[in-house]
Amino acid sequence: MAKGKDIQNLKHFLSLVRMGMWGRAEDLQPEGTDWEKITRWARQQTVIPIVAEGMEVSGLAGQIKESCIADLFESSASNARIHHLLDNAAAKAYTLLEEEDIPSVLIKGQGIARSYRNPLLRQCGDVDLLVGSRNYEKIPQTLSKHGYTIARQGGKHTDFYVSDFRVEIHRVCVETSSSVMNSFFLSWGDRQVKDSSKSFSPAGSEVMVRIPEDEFNAIYVFVHMFSALVSNGTGLRQLCDLAAVLSSGGKTLNREIILKSLTSHKLLRAWQVFGCVLVDYLGLPVEDFPFYDETQLPKAERLMDLIIESGNFGFFLKRPQGRQSVWSTAGYLWRKFVWKTSMVKLFPESLTKI
Fold first, then answer.
1. Phi-psi region of 291 (alpha: psi -120 to 50; beta: other; left: phi over 0)
2. Predicted local confidence at residue 3, as pLDDT
3. What is the pLDDT of residue 65?
4. How many domains does the chain have?
5. Together in a domain, 203 and 217
6. Is it the case that residue 249 has pLDDT exceeding 80?
7. Neighbouring-strand partners of residue 143
8. Where does a domain end: 157, 186, 212?
9. Residue 29: burial class (beta carbons within 10 Å; 0-12, 13-18, 19+)
């Protein structure tokens, strides 16, 4: 965990995340807390609505007068407005594809948000629809037919805008350095597009938008998060996503599918390290995490430090943009070396599988 005076701030920050995620109050003493740091972590980890909700649950929202808290709640309210607009954009894009007999499922942020106790707790990104390999080649012609301009086209996804919001139409939801893993997700994603029976109706819409099954989302979120961590880092938002999916799935989650997916790619141990973070730091009930292993707690403590250090999707570890000095470049390369060394120590059996 964090060192020195940051320990108490980090404990308070994680307490607010837990209260926001699960709606259960914890004893939090505000005296001496650096609220500027708390709100800065909320932004860096992309969990602003969760921390704002935690403030409400704690009963401290009206007591703390620092301007940073007001900014936090303003950002959370803005997120709620954007969330509804993104849902509407998702419904329009989904309907467009359905009219052309192209089935899809809503993945990533707006799809995962359905697993939270309140979807508005999930900080927004963009809209992602998975159509799979069978119909992906039809997308450019379909968008052109309906008067949309393609913003980006590639082998993984094609992007366009609906009501000023970016929509990504995916052939595959994950691309890693492992061809075996990529093939696995391409096949499983195609089956979700064809067979998933889960759906929801965005507020103000009569459209039923399909989403993947919980087992797929659990493995997908984990692999996406782990792949990002190994490369540059990951943030608490992705961990909260996984916690929400596992909590939502609960006892109905098919643990045999999850175990087979993890063991076949030698990812079970990495899964268990992340599980200790979810259970022991983010408050997921241990019975909701398949294959919890408390012996991984020491690695989970180190992982928690790295998550706070890296920021969402490794924001603080990415290569600086523009022309850089020799010393700046050397510093970046050194940070990358130290990061990779940390990954080898944490996940020696899994790095070659992702």
1. left
2. 54
3. 82
4. 2
5. no
6. yes
7. none
8. 212
9. exposed
